[in-house]
């Protein structure tokens, strides 16, 4: 039976009745879904297990799954915090929301890390100033974290837990062990992973269909663990993502626009309807499987325009790609300052 696979911490796994009747359940191919959706009398007839024992197992399992669902969906006070920039809050539908994954993607030097550092300050602000008066965790995967810059934005690191992640194995350990312990022992409402894709791209081989399936499974497991942390602990997870080249057009050909690769990737990347030469064929990494786990996706762009005295000035743009809190995508120009990101 697949109970341990789906609910490894369930008390049913350790009950005397389950240990005794587990071979019979497995013999008759009774799954966890069968236990939750089939009448106990029918299960008893199929397996030969006394109905009262089946009823006890089912009641315990239903109680646990119902409690878990209520924990994940129960409103718990304030459900978001301000970014500290009013125009950003307007574009994002109020700010950074808890209990979900928010992704910030863009090319190098567009301000992704700067924005994440600014958010660590924003979440620590008093509640009457739009913050949550809480701590944050900053996980850096692309080298040593620029703590000097983080101190410059925050003033100090008293409420920021910094972790330098050196490889994929350590990243998995952080997500599975360190992060849950930090959240349990501290008032943490924001976790930043900068970036989520670095070690996955470096260490996971993608040669051959077998490796492709293995990598996809590893990504799915990581997504589930991250979503569990967000929902159960009611925190905001903000991740940055790298860019990759657009796949070849010949991969999928169809006459139906809404299921075409160009349409779906364009919509998920924020350049749908924009000429391909403008976006240079760059899209967020990790594919559609990862995109389906992201609730809010933000794109940061950088361009150059002629400024005063013939100098080229940098123009930075925040674009909301998709979000359930803002039906219409919005754009905000911003600049980098010593205090973090500021809207123009």
TrEMBL record:
This protein's record includes keyword Nucleotide-binding: yes
Protein name per UniProt: DNA repair protein rhp57
Provenance organism: Cyberlindnera fabianii
First-listed, main subcellular location of the protein, grouped into a coarse class: nucleus
Alphabetic keyword roster: ATP-binding, DNA damage, DNA repair, Nucleotide-binding, Nucleus
Compartments, as annotated in UniProt: Nucleus
Single GO cellular component term: nucleus
Ranges where the RecA family profile domain occurs: 77-243
Keyword ATP-binding found: yes
Source organism, top-level taxon: Eukaryota
GO aspect biological process, one term: meiosis I cell cycle process
GO molecular function, one term: ATP binding
